Amino acid sequence: MYVCLCNAITDKVIRKVIQQHQPQTMKQLRNLVPIGTDCGKCIRQAREILIEEQENAPMMIEVA
After folding, report:
1. What is the DSSP string of 2-55?
2. How far apart (Å, rounded) are the C-alpha atoms in residues 11 and 20?
3. What is the CA radius of gyration of the chain?
4. How far apart are CA 59 and CA 48, in angstroms?
């Protein structure tokens, strides 16, 4: 499904970027994917995807 119509960004693209780069904030995500640069209607959906992917991500345990 298209999340950002202005830049033709799908939810799959956003999810893949989140899984690969693990951004923690919308600002970090926006640096990786050109969302919210024009009309801004995609920001809410992108934030929901970011939160959903963060909740589904395996917990990283710091060892050292």
Report:
1. EEETTTTEEHHHHHHHHHHH---SHHHHHHHS--SSSS-TTHHHHHHHHHHHHH
2. 14
3. 12
4. 19
pLDDT in tens, 23-52: 999 999 999 999 998 999 999 999 999 999
**Which residue matches tokens 């033709």?**
8
Q: What is the mean pLDDT of residues 2-19?
A: 96
Distance CA 20, CA 40 (A): 24
pLDDT at 58: 73
Instruction: Give me the residues paired with residue 2 across strands.
Output: 10
Q: Rounded to whole angstroms, what are the CA distances from 10 to 16, 36, 46, 59? A: 10, 13, 10, 26
What is the structure's pLDDT at 61?
59
Residues 24 and 42: their CA atoms lie apart, in Å, by 18
